[in-house]
Design a protein that fits this description.
With 506 residues, the protein is an alpha+beta fold. It has helices at 61-65, 72-85, 96-104, 117-129, 148-161, 232-239, 292-299, 353-360, 414-421, 473-480, and strands at 163-165, 167-170, 176-177, 184-185, 190-193, 221-225, 228-230, 256-258, 261-263, 282-285, 288-291, 316-319, 322-325, 343-346, 349-352, 377-380, 383-386, 404-407, 410-413, 436-439, 442-445, 463-466, 469-472. The chain is 19% helix and 17% strand. The protein is flat.
Length: 506
């Protein structure tokens, strides 16, 4: 690329319409107004790509970067197919079916279909991934003449060794492996190929992303460094520092490193008043630096006691969204300092423990003593207890955080409640906590309801009773039914001698 490209600004695509409001703060932004040197709107302070981007024509890589020769086929393919397919951009030299196959494999919200969020996403990524100031010095407002050669060397080296535009093609019959995810590439499907890497290293369409920002590489533009793939922005930042304020690469030997970012020495300024912060105390708010004066005006809290601003050099004590100077954090009644002491808070005022207890403390419903400041209080059903007073009425053990049952204004632990109120088995006299059996108007555990002779469980079985006790049929017959003299089987009574039935008479 010729860094001395002499096209005028009128020949280049218009990116930002001054009337376009911020997409995030529409009601608070009257339109994009370029800051003198920051890449933000002077109205809403949002970055330029956060505004609705306006273009006079379709956007392509040549317009964005100034590259002309090697991209002619890309541009012609774009003009031939974009209207037909209704896309802002399409991979060049592909059939309609292959174009559709490509777009199916990338996230739907990033497909650059005209009039959709995908079109706006692409336009935003063009600005982010291909910053124009990285491609032509005419867009660099802060590149001094003595560093023009350094800039040219950077551009030429990038074009010679790193910058590339990938293309989409069918995978050969030989099975390949995706360069990014190492997954299999199925023969016959499409893949993204970077000329500098060669066709032996294809990508799934969705895997062709920058190693830093993880975004799809816009219009297949990329840079290669140390066998990793980058968008141009993040490639450039591997080579040169970038000013966090103006977004230009830094070619001067002297610059400022602060807040884990790099800055031109004249651009490390207060976010509000633009005063230089070099060698000055500054404070951070929402990742922006402020001088002390602006920070105090914009963000310092007001003391709840004296009503004055709390400076950044003072201790700021706060409680329930109220703030105090350390010297103003006093008991509202006796005026003793409350720093490092227990205190109470009532009607927006603070009190020492003694004054708060005397004026506002409530009493325990069991012992009648007040709840002193700093002690635990348990509240339930309109009543309140000291922790030590919240006990089971039967065993007097402290409930603490254990489960309990409230009955007739008394508190019971689970064990005592079961012992006192649960039904007991008539046989074993133990509490029945699960389903039981009722027989003869008496409760039984299921396992306790059994034949007294053989101990067989009668739950769900046929049984009869004798002497008010349940017996299984077998035991009842053996114990209480008359036996046939011939066959020894229980029978009905026929005479003074007993037989099972007439079939046994002989």
């Amino acid at each position: 690329m010729d860094s001395g490209d002499d096209r005028t600004s009128d020949d280049l695509i218009q990116e930002i319409d001054g009337e376009q409001r911020c997409l995030e703060y529409k009601n608070n932004c009257t339109g994009f107004k370029q800051h003198a040197w920051r890449i933000v709107c002077d109205n809403c302070k949002c970055e330029r790509e956060c505004h609705d981007i306006h273009h006079n024509d379709f956007v392509n890589v040549r317009d964005r970067t100034g590259l002309q020769n090697q991209l002619q086929s890309n541009e012609s393919s774009f003009k031939r197919n974009s209207t037909e397919e209704r896309y802002a951009w399409i991979p060049p030299n592909l059939s309609r079916d292959k174009i559709q196959e490509y777009f199916v494999q990338i996230p739907s919200q990033k497909v650059p279909l005209l009039g959709t969020p995908g079109e706006k996403h692409r336009e935003k990524q063009l600005i982010i991934q291909l910053p124009k100031q990285d491609f032509s010095p005419r867009y660099c407002k802060f590149l001094e003449k003595e560093y023009l050669q350094h800039y040219a060397d950077f551009v030429n080296e990038r074009q010679r060794t790193a910058y590339d535009i990938a293309y989409v093609k069918n995978i050969s019959e030989q099975t390949s492996e995706c360069y990014q995810c190492r997954g299999n590439m199925i023969p016959g499907n499409i893949a993204v190929v970077v000329p500098r890497l060669g066709e032996r290293y294809p990508f799934h369409p969705a895997c062709f992303v920058c190693s830093i920002c993880k975004e799809l590489l816009v219009d297949l533009n990329c840079c290669i460094k140390n066998e990793k793939i980058y968008c141009e922005r993040h490639y450039a930042e591997q080579i040169r520092s970038r000013c966090a304020a103006c977004d230009e690469l830094i070619f001067t030997e002297e610059y400022i490193r602060a807040m884990s970012k790099d800055w031109h020495t004249t651009h490390f300024c207060c976010w509000k008043c633009n005063d230089l912060l070099r060698g000055q105390q500054y404070l951070l708010r929402d990742e922006h630096p402020y001088c002390v004066l602006c920070y105090e005006i914009l963000f310092s809290n007001t003391c709840n006691e004296c009503g004055r601003s709390i400076s950044v050099d003072s201790m700021d004590l706060f409680y329930k969204n109220k703030h105090w100077h350390d010297s103003c954090f006093l008991c509202s009644k006796c005026r003793d300092s409350l720093i490092y002491k227990p205190f109470g808070f009532k009607t927006d005022k603070v009190y020492c423990a003694s004054c708060y207890d005397a004026a506002f403390a409530t009493k325990c419903d069991v012992c009648g003593e007040i709840f002193r400041t700093g002690t635990k209080k348990i509240e339930y059903n309109g009543k309140q207890w000291h922790e030590k007073c919240f006990c089971c009425i039967v065993c007097t053990n402290s409930i603490g955080t254990k489960s309990f049952i409230h009955k007739d204004n008394d508190i019971y632990c689970i064990t005592c409640y079961e012992q006192k109120f649960f039904t007991r088995c008539i046989k074993c006299n133990q509490v029945i906590t699960t389903d039981g059996v009722t027989y003869g108007n008496e409760p039984w555990h299921r396992e306790c309801f059994c034949c007294p002779n053989c101990q067989r469980c009668l739950n769900g079985e046929l049984f009869t009773s004798k002497f008010e006790k349940p017996y299984c049929a077998k035991c009842f017959g053996e114990l209480f039914t008359k036996i046939c003299h011939a066959c020894n089987i229980p029978i009905t009574e026929l005479s003074s001698r007993h037989w099972r039935n007439t079939l046994c008479i002989f």
